[in-house]
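Working notes for the structural subgroup meeting. M.R. asked for a predicted model of this chain before we commit to crystallization trials. I am recording the input and output together here so anyone reviewing the notebook later can reproduce the run.

Input as submitted:
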Amino acid sequence: MNMKHMRILEQRFLSLYPKGFDSPEMKEAGKKHKVDKMEQMAKEVLSKESLNQVGAINGIVKLITRSSLVSLFEKTRFRNLINEADDLFKQDIVDAVYTMIHENQAQGFDRLVSLLAPYKMAKWPILSVLLFYLDGEYEVLVKPTTVKKVLSYLECTDITYSPKASFAFYQKYRDMINIVKAQCDPRLSRNNGAFQAVFMLLLE
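Returned structure, recorded in token form:
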């Protein structure tokens, strides 16, 4: 991991935005993502009580389709998949989400992958956005373009990106982001989504 590169990026970002994500430009740019609103929605629809109710799948679909962090193409395909699915598949998705959030994160994550992969819907943003909205200071949003830029710029040779989603990669990437973030100026890290956005903003 090349922390010298991170220091260069940190200095560039703070020279442009001295108040970090509290700078007027950053606040304005962040409005479109409505993170606070989405976090509140996630707490409601992904609670134990909500996930144990009939129709819990509707809350999951609503959360994903309203997210600006998931592409229109991916969320439309996810919504269509669920709309066309039978009740057993829908309940399997809900059970996997429940396991991931409330019981065993690794087991639930990989169960979701196994359920969605046959339909080519085990997409990183869909899988990770649920965790990110619940705890953005610790969890990460995995968007392929961003992840590849981060790993390349920081020369993280021990972590290899794969388009095939897995909890093993998610955990490694999350740990790396949290380690790097802890060594940076707090103005770069309102949450892990914002921290990763620094790379997208400044790297070609």
